[in-house]
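Hi C.,

You asked whether I'd gotten around to modeling the 196-residue construct. I have! Everything is below, sequence then structure, no commentary in between.
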Amino acid sequence: EVYAAIVRDLSVSAYDAQLAAPKPYTSRHLAEGLENLVFICPECGARDSFTSAADTAECRECSHRIKYDEYGMLSGTRFDTVRALSDWQKERVAYDAASGAEYTAESASLFSIDTEHNVTPVCTGKVRLNATELSVGDFCVSTDEIKGFSMRGKRALLFSANKSYYEIIPDEGYNSLKFYLFYEACRVAREQERKE
């Protein structure tokens, strides 16, 4: 009984509950930070192009505006929820991974982290991630050597390679989630290729 109750509670969809019985959440900052999740403009396809303020996120490239209302719904886009937009974005990332795309950020800092949790700067520079390698400035590692690629907070990317631990922090204005999702899509594609 307890296990069934836990499973039932964990499977609750906030959007489904909100659609069934809408409850407003009032704030002057409803959409602020949305660019931490939304990194592909659904209108023009630009990456890292959103800025947000108050209840609106806007693409710097095409001026497309997405409004986030007090019920958690979107307007100004073909997606009614952030979840639907996020699902579409994941499909785009998977397509990019299968197409041999490269995800980039013009500037980031790379740090090494030792077993005592001491953090040492390694380099700064452009981040490039494709199906075969990850580079930051002069640092480059094969994606086959990367283990445990993850995110910490909104901006930090963590990974291990060659028995060392690293953290990448892209500069403000660059989305870290895109790198995590793209790495995972490339990893899945590599695994499928190996099985064939």
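If it helps when you're writing up: DSSP finds four helices and eleven strands in the chain.

Thanks,
B.
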